[in-house]
Design goal:
- By secondary structure, this protein is mostly helical.
- Helices cover 69% and strands 2% of the residues.
- It contains 15 helices and two strands.
- It has a two-stranded antiparallel ribbon with strand order 1-2.
- Helix 2 crosses helix 4 and helix 9 packs across helix 10.
């Protein structure tokens, strides 16, 4: 519970606009969780806790893809009605099922472990983003890999607020024939919804560098743990899966941490080693695919959701359909 509290509190405290960040989290739940919950309830027959864990992922995939189709078909004006209907139906369904099961059946030991591990993974990885995009000493600052590829996607996000597909971020006025902007479109949908609901403007950097990474890395950690536990049948399998998630790139993080620790007696040097502007940090090479390119960690997130579905001992044809 403390980990969950810190996971929610720290990015809000670090945000440029705390009220906007809180509203963004609320919009995300309404926009993606409830439609995903509705979809999983209709198509699948999943346990309560597992369904709650997968709902935001399936909601992101379904709603973002639907918005892309609506926008390309020039019928985006009807998209809000579509989302409102799905969200309302998902809320009603969730309320009805909660009344039928007053005891939270989803709060199983396995579900509790997944939440704890997901929170720990998010607190280990997401802070690499949280300090970027903040106003400091009269300017916005960006640290490490968060100041590399991420800035291109922030630009894509801004262009997606106007039209889909976005302009080429290199050559103004041209649209890239092929480029990955799935996560950018997801956050553009959040911004559109927040504006439509008149909840106040959310800072673009708060959404990209604080709110969204918090959710993505929580889900990655929870699903990695659950997949390993399902495969080997023990909690050790889950922890092994998480270690592979965080350390599969090698042991460079260990030697990088030792190199950084050697500067412990000199705070200014230590701070520079931990938060080097516009450079890669010592020790993050093993998790660089998780923080550098959104296509990598979004693809991994969707794959883990499919794997956990197919690793269920009581899987059915519905699970294969959902995984596909």
């Amino acid at each position: 519970s403390l980990l969950i509290f810190l996971l929610l509190l720290i990015p809000i405290v670090l945000s440029n606009n705390p009220r906007g960040a809180i509203c963004a989290i609320f919009v995300f739940v309404v926009l993606f969780f409830f439609p995903g919950y509705l979809l999983l309830t209709i198509v699948g027959r999943l346990p309560g806790g597992f369904r709650i864990l997968l709902s935001p992922i399936f909601g992101i995939v379904f709603i973002t893809t639907a918005y892309d189709i609506f926008a390309r078909a020039s019928i985006a004006t009807y998209f809000p009605y579509f989302v409102v209907a799905l969200s309302a139906a998902g809320m009603i369904l969730a309320a009805l099922q909660a009344r039928q099961a007053p005891t939270p059946s989803w709060w199983t030991p396995n579900g509790y472990e997944s939440v704890i591990v997901g929170s720990a993974v998010a607190l280990a990885v997401a802070p690499l983003f949280w300090r970027s995009g903040r106003f400091s000493d009269g300017e916005f600052v960006f640290y490490g890999p968060a100041g590399h590829d991420a800035l291109f996607h922030v630009t894509l996000l801004q262009r997606l607020m106007h039209h889909v597909p976005p302009d080429n971020f290199m050559v103004s006025g041209l649209r890239p024939s092929v480029y990955h902007y799935f996560d950018d479109l997801t956050m553009a949908v959040v911004l559109h919804a927040q504006n439509a609901l008149h909840l106040g403007a959310v800072d673009l950097f708060d959404l990209y560098y604080r709110c969204y990474p918090m959710l993505v890395y929580f889900l990655l950690g929870a699903l990695a743990y659950r997949a390993g536990r399902q495969l080997l049948g023990t909690a050790r399998g889950g922890f092994l899966s998480v270690l592979l998630l965080l350390g599969a790139g090698g042991l460079g993080w260990f030697f990088g941490a030792l190199q950084t620790a050697t500067h412990a007696s000199q705070f200014a040097v230590l701070r520079a080693a931990l938060f080097s502007d516009w450079s890669s940090w010592d020790g993050v090479d093993s998790i660089l695919p998780l923080i550098h390119r959104p296509a990598h960690y979004h693809g991994l997130l969707i794959c883990l959701a499919a794997i956990t579905l197919l690793f269920r001992p009581d899987r059915s044809r519905r699970d294969w359909l959902l995984a596909g």
